[in-house]
Amino acid sequence: MFSALKQPAVLRQDALASLVVFLVALPLCVGVAVASGVPAELGLITGIVGGLVVGSLPGSTFQVSGPAAGLTVLVFEAVREFGLGMLGAIVLATGVLQLVLGLLKFGRWFRAISVSVVHGMLAGIGLVLIFGQLYTMAGVKQPRSGLDKIAGIPGLAADIATDSSALTAFAVGAGTIAVLVVWKKLPAKAQLVPAPLVAVALATAVTALGGLDVANVEVHGLADAIQPPGLSDLTSLGGLAVLGTVIAFTLIASAETLFSAAAVDRMHDGPRTHYDKELLAQGVGNAVCGVLGALPMTAVIVRSSANVQAGAKTSLSRILHGAWLLLFAVLLPAAIGVIPLAALAGVLVHAGCKLVPVKELGPLWREHRGEVVVLGVTAVAIVTTSMFEGVVLGILLAVVKTAWDTSKVQLDVRELTDGRMVATVSGNATFLRLPRILETLEALPQDRPIEIDLSGVRHLDHACRTALEGWAARHNAPGTEPVLMRHPEPEKAAV
User: Fold this and answer.
1) Phi/psi of residue 456, each to 5°?
2) What is residue 417's DSSP assignment?
3) Helix or strand or coil: residue 66?
């Protein structure tokens, strides 16, 4: 980074890239904050910390951090359940937990989280975001639960059709989405200006020039928005529900950051991300955000990819983007107050649609149907229950699926010339395959000498061994030679 200050060409390129990232980040910071049910300034504070603090720390050179749409639903639920005052304490605890995990070198292990769970998590967030922000687009208060949001869509459609103010606001949001979709199809030169900025600017201009009666973002000033957690908030962190929220924040923010890092590393030929250091940097950033009472942060793929595509050379670009956000928030806070809420809702509906991996579902279903089931169950659980419960269910299902896939076992029965029957078991014999194994063995005759050959078993768990020994002890009828079991070698059984 410091070398860039001595190279005018690199400094100029990083400065230009930082402006692009700033223009992308500005509407998203405000939009994520509003959708999370907190003052717009808190989103800007998180973006500033993500640039100035996290941007200056080692970990990833080009990854840009800030408030993310992926945490919107969880933050909204946390604020609704515990209050805005507890948000800072929860985010602070999240940062501390990330620091501990980073110091313990857990960063690399977050890469082991099932991709299907992450995609399911993002899809569930996207669906809740879409259905929730449709109400905001119409200026209507959104229901609390995901199911209520979906069930209320017919009523929302009726309100839009019969209420002129709801129709006007919804049209502003729909127009914003249309600009976002069309802008990506324009020539590359036009796309140098970020689509979210163009869409929000056009919606703001149309609303102002047309004198449309729609709700705008409320602005109270950056300093007034800072609300450090009090002692009572910190002592409340011991509650089970609060701890569950902290763990959910940590898991989702860390996983999204490190998966984003893997994606960003594929976009450039520069230095690779050091995952443990990046986790430490995120922990510092979230701890600072918690002290300021701001939103939690994570690395954001939209801003990060914009940084790479804009030609950033060093980490100076992401630091400067935080400086631009700070200058804007201090010098031009009133500019935020003219932005229509419906336009920001449109930006988030569009972002929610991009979180649902529609294009990947077809190929994934053809090649790995079990992964689609994990993805779908995770997404549906998030929509119908909560973020934390959905992610935990997805992880458990992924573990069960992996255990099932790896516990493949073969059972071959053959008869020798002397009438003796040999059942050969090979593979990984675990309790998950016991029903099939026992059904096959119980079908063997009880009046013949039987031998169970387990020498080809790579892994034999305790439950399976106990069940097989129990079957062998009782299977053969009195007067028949007892079942003989040939156990696997100790070193094979321990694999």
Assistant:
1) -95, 5
2) T
3) strand
Judge whether 146 and 127 are in contact, CB under 8 Å: yes
CB proximity list for 135: less than 8 A, separation 6 or greater: 141, 142, 143, 149, 152, 156
The identity of residue 233, as a single letter, is D
Cα–Cα distances in angstroms (integers) from residue 361 to residues 113, 334, 477, in the given order: 19, 43, 54
> Are 419 and 448 spatial neighbours (Cβ–Cβ below 8 Å)?
yes
What is the number of other CB atoms lying within 10 angstroms of the CB of residue 82?
Answer: 18
Place of tokens 């973002």: 217
DSSP per position, 203-214:
HHHHHHHHT---
Backbone angles phi, psi at 452, to 5 degrees: -105, 115
pTM of this prediction? 0.70
pLDDT digits (tens, 9 = 90+) for 435-492: 888 998 988 998 889 999 988 888 888 888 899 889 988 888 888 888 888 876 654 4
CB atoms within 10 A of CB 419: 10
DSSP state, 451?
Answer: E
Question: Which phi and psi (to 5°) does residue 446 adopt?
Answer: -95, 0
| pLDDT tens-digit map of 410-438 | 899 998 878 889 999 988 888 888 888 89
| Amino acid symbol at 445 | P
Residue of 356, 374, 388, 373 whose CA lies nearest to 73: 388
Rounded distance, CA 429 to CA 445, Å? 22
CA distance 141 to 68: 22
240-265 and 115-137 are packed helices; what angle lies between their axes, rounded to 10 degrees?
A: 110
Which of 223, 240, 258, 245 has its CA nearest to residue 109?
258
